[in-house]
Amino acid sequence: MEPLQCGTSPIVGFRFSLHPMTGDFIQVIKGALRETDTTNVWMHTDDVSTVIRGRQLHVFNAAKSIALHAAKTGVHVAMSGTFSVGCPGDSAGDAYLDKGDELLNTDTSKQYVSSQFALYPMNNPDYMAIIYREVERAKALGVYNDSMHYASGIHGDIHDVFAFYEEAFANARTSENAHLVMTVALSINSPSHGGGSGA
Amino acid sequence: MEPLQCGTSPIVGFRFSLHPMTGDFIQVIKGALRETDTTNVWMHTDDVSTVIRGRQLHVFNAAKSIALHAAKTGVHVAMSGTFSVGCPGDSAGDAYLDKGDELLNTDTSKQYVSSQFALYPMNNPDYMAIIYREVERAKALGVYNDSMHYASGIHGDIHDVFAFYEEAFANARTSENAHLVMTVALSINSPSHGGGSGA
Fold it and tell me: What Gene3D superfamilies does the record point to (chains A, B) (predicted)?
């Protein structure tokens, strides 16, 4: 039996799947991974998803870069995944906590993203207040799109969207309630975009 | 400001995205929705995802049918989403709680699915014990595939996989801790399947 404790490590993880809606999906996925510098994160891919782990800034930087490079193909791509912190399960990848502050992926190309997210602060009686606070922050930043069941819509340029997600993820956890989960679903180059709620 | 209370409704929801890895993704999605009888669930689609809500048995039945019908095209398809209960936000779809017990989608075609899931019992100090208990249940049922960061691998025939998910979702909540979230990521017809951990 594994230990039933969480919240012992500052390592951030993102388990995600990248879905290019094309028969050439393998080329798009491999290209996006190849064009992203992932040397600051621990990475492992299985038959369903990929996980990257490391310091928060490098995990978000690599995630954004992978999405951006897949988007540049022009293909309709989706990225769905879960950011987690505070429940590492084991210590694989902890060595990456020694990486410095320099971001390795600095492409600032503009790219519209429509997305949805949900925050799950674990074992925290005040979790609903935290969620509403971060949604209000999205409104103030101009990236809020829509309210909906079980999630909130966030859209705009990919750099603004990921900046909000990283900030929300940092703000929604405390040292007392260190286990935090955030799900995101991003849609890029979709024929449904441009009219808000659509098909 | 919306109320900060959860756990007041038995309505179950599933917000998901279906991703066929083909340029004909729209046809695959529309076909899967058309071939699924969704009259027992409330459904709404926006530019990123679709949500279905209703009684637990009908939500899981419709979700499985949508995945199965998409799979029958032979295309590599992924379904990712979040099952939620206990925090409806509002009452849209509550009328569907009056639906009977008869399942409307009864196709028993076999289909291999490799998937990953995570349980998030909210505001519950015992949540890690609940998660481990459900993972042990998967092992006993023969659908457990692998352990990994932030998730557990579940695979097998689609009917066995969904039966496990529905059972885990039912078991992981109590009347005192009614707000429960479960994320799932399914991969079907993938070239990476067949060898466990792959590309």
Answer: 3.30.70.930
Task: Say if the Cβ atoms of B116 and A78 lie within 8 Å.
Answer: no
Residues of chain B with Cβ-Cβ distance to A128 below 8 Å are 4-6, 87
B197 touching A, CB under 8 A? yes
Q: Which of B6, B22, B150 sits opposite A82 (nearest CB)?
A: B150
Domains of chain A: 12-90+108-194 (3.30.70.930)
**Is A50 annotated for ligand binding?**
yes
Q: Is B114 on the interface with A (CB under 8 A)?
A: yes
Query: Looking at chain A, which residue has its C-alpha nearest residue B115?
Result: A48
For chain B, 199 residues long, give each residue's pLDDT as a single digit of tens.
444 566 667 899 999 999 999 999 999 999 999 999 999 999 999 999 999 999 999 999 999 999 999 999 999 999 999 999 987 566 666 778 999 999 999 999 999 999 999 999 999 989 999 999 999 999 999 999 999 999 999 999 999 999 999 999 999 998 888 899 999 999 999 998 864 433 3
Query: How many CA atoms are closer than 13 Å to the CA of B85, on its beta-carbon side?
Result: 26
Query: Which of A193, A196, A199, A188 has its CA nearest to residue A19?
Result: A188
B8/B54 Cα distance (integer angstroms): 14
| Record: contact B185-A48, CB cut-off 8 A | yes
> What pTM did the predictor assign?
0.93
CA A193, A198, A199, B1 dihedral sign is positive
Please give the Cα distance from B25 to B18 (Å, whole number).
Answer: 9
CA distance A128 to B4: 6
Contact A82 B187 (CB under 8 A): no
Put simply, the answer to whether B89 touches A149 (Cβ < 8 Å) is: yes
